[in-house]
Amino acid sequence: MEPETLELESFLPYRLYRLADAVSREFSKIYRDRHGLTRPEWRTLSGLGQRGTMTATALGEQSAMHKTKVSRAVAELERRRWLTRTPDENDRRVEHLTLTKAGLTAYQEMVPLARAFERELLARLNAEERAAIVTGVAALEAKLTVG
Asked: Beta strand 95-99 with 83-87: parallel, antiparallel or unpaired?
């Protein structure tokens, strides 16, 4: 009996990973060209821009990034003076991260570009396809308790 094989090209988890990576790479051109940001730096900037003050641990959970990637992104954004670290009053091992005025300006500049990218991406689909992908992704997220 021959061993069973897995056709990656039709395996949904593989397809979702490849699609997410392709979309992320395409969007990364915008923030890389505009601000020279890496993906982890963009995720850190956008997390803080959306939520205000966060810890590195919370950023990692929100963005699904490993703590070393978060740490490097935080260090680079701090080097650029786009974020500040404030030690927690009760636990000196914890730091609260906040965007500076310059970091917030960069974030606010990127928001309309991100929204335009999303609109252009969805415009590649017809109305029925757009509704199906939005509904399908939301259903999977709910079942897998993502985010």
From this structure: antiparallel
